[in-house]
Amino acid sequence: MSDKKQRREKPSDDGGGPSAPFWMVTYSDMVTLLLTFFVMLLAMANFEEPGRVEAVFESIRLALGVDGLDEQVLGVDPVDPQHEEDIQVENKLQPIMSVVSEALSKHLSDDMVVLTKTPTEIRVLLDDRVLFRPGSAELHPSTYLLLADVGEALAQQPVEVKVEGHTDETGNARGNWELSADRAVSVVYAMQERGGMNGAHLEARGMGQFRPSNVTKGQNNWDRRVELVIRSDSSLAFDALYEVERITNGGRDGG
After folding, report:
1. Would you list the domain boundaries of the chain?
2. What single DSSP character describes residue 66?
3. Helices (H), 10-139
4. Which of 9, 107, 192, 197 is the right S-S partner for 146, CB 3.0 to 4.6 Å?
């Protein structure tokens, strides 16, 4: 009896402590195999299609019972929602820019107009000599046909147009405010009356001498200009959503 007791109390020769339970070893092997499988799926995934990558992440979450698995842990940059929205807006602006460019090319040489596009808006810069007599807000007779064509092109598009009048620093500030505002109103009125645009989609703004241009195209003084700022309904809707989010976050940009 004492020999049996001594045999039971004899320490094992492997020198280790208590071994892991059998179920833990099995579970560890299963998790390792699952991770290997999902790594293979990630290697085969097309990372230019975020939907498929997200499906792989969701499969991992469900299989491993992990809540809130971070894509960056797996080496994948999360998709920026704002970037996707900017791309959507920019895609909608491209056909609008095409029709505006076509309307302008019928009447103006390249050195009299500057056309630019950002992800959220199109800007058309018109040399003031194209539109007005010096120091006047009265349009040249030939300008009406130009603004009619631009207005007709934009009237068919889901856009809002802000017309900004600008002057240089010559003259007095009060006179420049008045001249820039009157010129913007003249352009807005022509686009509405001759081009058929809805007045609710037009806005006139006098900027005076306080927004000098950084355009250096040709020999023109681009401080004296009229700008058409064209924004699609999509970009306006996103602006409204961002403003609501900013207000709900207590007025803090970016949360």
Report:
1. 2-79, 84-240
2. -
3. 22-44, 50-64, 81-105, 128-131
4. 107
